[in-house]
């Protein structure tokens, strides 16, 4: 007899977590206990730590109904962040739904690198940064939240995605310093934004040849346009890297999130474009994650 068969009413927090962990695990969910806890804390509007403090608390029927509906969605493969409608990123919380890629902890590597490289300026000076392919607005809004002296342009090709980023900016009270523009890569930037102190981007970089290797949560639910970039995943970077030279100030940095096996190829693209001080930065797992490069300080 399985653990789930031994369990039954009254459904306390501990019992429902045990049952759900078994249920999700049997359906191939990679982190069934964590997902069960996150969704239950959302259903009960409790911090996760409070679940442990209230293990013996029975759930009322309305709470059970809400939780069951979420677990049904998770068992079908829908990502937790789409079910709860939010995801923590850096020091901010972002609204998340199927209009945009879910922000990942790996992308915080890019935010950290950008903050280290942005120069300090006098009180009356401001810096201009562009985030190309902003998605939820994660990078743009994280940078703006940390540096009040930044004005940020956030672009995206898809109008619904850009609307989600705007909603996040409004919720974080950052709309005055983050401007949104729709269009293809740098074509979206107005002329006034074509002299940047930094350009950052987490572009699509997965190859279409890797589609079947992706987790079901990603492959079946997150927007394809935010994931794939040609057979080898580099099509967008082949366009973005050389074009970025036309909008960066001399000496300004370009920061790109890349796939963990793309370090060598992206380094070659940056060298071919004429960038200097090229480096590939690792994420917390030690894998290649961010390409950093600098436009020459003086034009030839």
From TrEMBL:
<dbReference type="InterPro" id="IPR050320">
    <property type="entry name" value="N5-glutamine_MTase"/>
</dbReference>
<feature type="binding site">
    <location>
        <position position="156"/>
    </location>
    <ligand>
        <name>S-adenosyl-L-methionine</name>
    </ligand>
</feature>
<keyword id="KW-0489">Methyltransferase</keyword>
<dbReference type="InterPro" id="IPR019874">
    <property type="entry name" value="RF_methyltr_PrmC"/>
</dbReference>
<feature type="binding site">
    <location>
        <position position="202"/>
    </location>
    <ligand>
        <name>S-adenosyl-L-methionine</name>
    </ligand>
</feature>
<dbReference type="InterPro" id="IPR002052">
    <property type="entry name" value="DNA_methylase_N6_adenine_CS"/>
</dbReference>
<feature type="domain" description="Methyltransferase small">
    <location>
        <begin position="117"/>
        <end position="208"/>
    </location>
</feature>
<dbReference type="GO" id="GO:0032259">
    <property type="term" value="P:methylation"/>
</dbReference>
<protein>
    <recommendedName>
        <fullName>Release factor glutamine methyltransferase</fullName>
        <ecNumber>2.1.1.297</ecNumber>
    </recommendedName>
</protein>
<dbReference type="GO" id="GO:0003676">
    <property type="term" value="F:nucleic acid binding"/>
</dbReference>
<dbReference type="InterPro" id="IPR007848">
    <property type="entry name" value="Small_mtfrase_dom"/>
</dbReference>
<dbReference type="GO" id="GO:0102559">
    <property type="term" value="F:peptide chain release factor N(5)-glutamine methyltransferase activity"/>
</dbReference>
<comment type="similarity">
    <text>Belongs to the protein N5-glutamine methyltransferase family. PrmC subfamily.</text>
</comment>
<comment type="function">
    <text>Methylates the class 1 translation termination release factors RF1/PrfA and RF2/PrfB on the glutamine residue of the universally conserved GGQ motif.</text>
</comment>
<dbReference type="Pfam" id="PF17827">
    <property type="entry name" value="PrmC_N"/>
</dbReference>
<dbReference type="InterPro" id="IPR029063">
    <property type="entry name" value="SAM-dependent_MTases_sf"/>
</dbReference>
<feature type="domain" description="Release factor glutamine methyltransferase N-terminal">
    <location>
        <begin position="16"/>
        <end position="85"/>
    </location>
</feature>
<keyword id="KW-0949">S-adenosyl-L-methionine</keyword>
<feature type="binding site">
    <location>
        <begin position="133"/>
        <end position="137"/>
    </location>
    <ligand>
        <name>S-adenosyl-L-methionine</name>
    </ligand>
</feature>
<dbReference type="InterPro" id="IPR004556">
    <property type="entry name" value="HemK-like"/>
</dbReference>
<dbReference type="Pfam" id="PF05175">
    <property type="entry name" value="MTS"/>
</dbReference>
<keyword id="KW-0808">Transferase</keyword>
<dbReference type="InterPro" id="IPR040758">
    <property type="entry name" value="PrmC_N"/>
</dbReference>
<feature type="binding site">
    <location>
        <begin position="202"/>
        <end position="205"/>
    </location>
    <ligand>
        <name>substrate</name>
    </ligand>
</feature>
């Amino acid at each position: 007899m399985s653990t789930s068969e031994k369990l039954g009413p009254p459904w306390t927090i501990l019992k429902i977590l045990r049952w759900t962990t078994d249920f999700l695990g049997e359906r191939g969910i990679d982190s069934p206990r964590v997902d069960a806890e996150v969704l239950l804390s959302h259903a009960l509007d409790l911090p996760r730590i409070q679940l442990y403090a209230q293990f013996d608390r029975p759930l009322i029927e309305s709470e059970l109904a809400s939780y069951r509906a979420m677990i049904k969605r998770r068992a079908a493969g829908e990502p937790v962040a789409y079910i709860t409608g939010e995801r923590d990123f850096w020091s901010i919380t972002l609204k998340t739904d199927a209009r945009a890629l879910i922000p990942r902890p790996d992308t915080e590597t890019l935010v950290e690198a950008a903050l280290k490289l942005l120069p300090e300026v006098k009180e009356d000076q401001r810096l201009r940064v562009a985030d190309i392919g902003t998605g939820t607005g994660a990078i743009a809004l994280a940078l703006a939240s940390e540096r009040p002296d930044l004005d940020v342009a956030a672009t995206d090709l898809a109008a619904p995605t850009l609307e989600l980023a705007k909603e996040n900016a409004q919720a974080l009270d950052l709309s005055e310093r983050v401007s949104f523009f729709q269009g293809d890569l740098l074509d979206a930037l107005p002329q006034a934004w074509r002299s940047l102190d930094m350009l950052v981007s987490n572009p699509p970089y997965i190859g279409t040849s890797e589609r079947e290797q992706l987790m079901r949560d990603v492959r079946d639910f997150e927007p394809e346009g935010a994931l794939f970039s040609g057979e080898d995943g580099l099509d967008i970077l082949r366009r973005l890297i050389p074009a970025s030279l036309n909008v960066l100030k001399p000496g300004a940095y370009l920061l790109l999130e890349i796939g963990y096996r793309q370090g060598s190829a992206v380094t070659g693209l940056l060298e071919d474009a004429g960038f200097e001080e090229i480096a590939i930065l690792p994420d917390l797992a030690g894998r290649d994650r961010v390409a950093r490069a600098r436009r020459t300080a003086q034009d030839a």
